[in-house]
């Protein structure tokens, strides 16, 4: 039985890969033992296209509608919640000008719609303080409706035997990400650390050989390209790696940062407030995008063993109980 006011209607369209798929996996895990939670999930396997946005609107009344995919509901009756989780919808003009390939056309078309429907929301959920700042810079009238809640994440299995000289770089290449320049610096840094320690350093990158050639990385000796991995294959690499390299700069959350934190895996990333907020005590920051700074951070991870935290800062039960106004399973 659902609570007074009807069920909670949740649109999960668009969760095909990356963090969106990771989020949906956590949601499925939460709902599995709670068949009477009063939640109706729609949109699985669909693209967030105009045709779907029109079809998902429902007659009748729901006690809450939740859009997990940046685009809030327009007409369905009920308290409207939306997750804003794509920083590209809220880049500053200077950031757009700095993108190597420019703002992708689909993002440029979607951003005005995302912003317009965010104004209709009763609650706007963002996964980090940096994303809240982006949203409020663009939409200051949402100041009393924005709530920062980090994305949900279950603790990983116990790690296996870690390879101290193996660094995992779980990134998705895209035209707007300057991955070639950053990874060439990382390749140089890895060679510097290997020379200093006498031990080989290998950086495992989740990109294809073709993507590496396009970015001019085919001749890099310390980079090993393993292609785009399934979540299960990626978890295997995470259990074996000695550290994580996360060189991206415009993130709304960054699941790899959170996963490394729960696994006690040192993270080499930019010295930013966002990375410190999500990675917490496992962050090994570099300040400048230089081979010297990257090498110093890599060297530091070789002897770092982060201590476990007393509680999960990304607890999925707490998160989804709040987001979905969910009923607990009967004992």
TrEMBL record:
The protein's name: Glycosyl transferase group 1
Keyword entries, A-Z: Transferase
GO molecular function annotations of the record: glycosyltransferase activity
Originating organism: Frankia torreyi
Keyword Transferase: yes
Entries under PANTHER family matching the protein: GLYCOSYLTRANSFERASE WBBK-RELATED (PTHR46401)
Tagged with keyword Transferase: yes
